Amino acid sequence: MEEGATAAAYLPDDVVVDILARLPAKSLCRFKCVSRRWRALISERCSSAQTLSGFFFTSRAPAWRFTGLPSSSVTPPPGGAGGLPPVVDAALSFLPPSCVEREIEMLDSCNGLLLLLCSDECPCRPPPAFYVVCNPATGEWVALPQPKYTPGDQTWCWDFEGDRVITWYAAVGFDPAISSHFYVFQVVEAEYNTHHCLEAVEIYSSETGTWVLSKKGRDDGGFNFMYHMTYFNGSLHLTTDSDAVASVDAKGRPWRITHVLGREGADDHRRCGRRGYIGHSRGRLLYLDDVRKDDVMSIYVLEDEDSGEWTLMRRVSKKDLLFEPWKHVLKPTYYKAGFHPNGDLIFFYDRTRARLISYDWSRGDWHVVCTLTDFEHAHRAFFPYVPWYSGGLASPNSN
Q1: Cα–Cα distance list, 266 to 134, 228, 258, 272, 340 (Å)
Q2: Fewer Cβ within 10 Å of end Cβ, the chain: N or C?
């Protein structure tokens, strides 16, 4: 060991960094013991990797894949040497048999954590589906207790005066700069004559280990959830079929409804063709307003959280991005993949040409990142991944 440690001490920093960039997180922790210099290099690498490293996306087989981002396609570049993204166990091979032996669906990602739904192909067969939160960088995972409404299900229930309660969507919220604890949000919709209306959100806290039900206020109005959501500043922000954004506080405070286009947006006759996308970048909440038949998309920023006013920041021409018009409302020709958390970039998937592209709205130009020929359609198809190497998954017993 002494001979190996002595030899390692003479390796140049760039060689050491190149070696470390190819190691999984658990091996990195062991190599911190080699020397103080190696400990410093590993700590620097873990710190620099806290930016967008790539995307998990839905595919045919397996159910998801991962594509890393080369340093030339993002600003700033991801951690790792020579422009290589950090090593990612995209297959999630660390998951236990209780998950692997069942059907696994990826539901969301947030600051290094993934939210999965584990279920049987036959939902009537016990045990019921359950949520798992995991960290691909460290191989840690935790299965959550059951919420009030069965995950990934539609059941006959009259709790909201509708025919059925639907729980097809959920999100994970995690901000390591604020707390080591995470939240899981289960979206609860009610079916009214074949129409799905957003009614409530069940919230799990890793601090308490329990679920609480947060219902929409009586004066919040009725709207349909449109699949996209993001966790930011302690709340889950959800898009609707109008321009309204529903913000659900993780602590269970009353919902907040803001209108990107003002109150008149709720009565826009084009609302059935609106496909808004929400995310955040540089500490700001962003909303991409996209009406299917329009030639442009508009990016809005929530400048003032107290007033709830959104400000138009940029317009994006679909023709400049070479997007083909939609031929069918249920078959989009392009998808929003995500905002870059540290740069003026938004990523799109051009389904016609099977390519992932990045658009820089400050410069007005775009670049092809890679091709994705095995992409499979889903309402939530892309999950931005920011690796998190520090700390473990918090539980009710951790401080």
Answers
A1: 37, 18, 10, 11, 28
A2: C
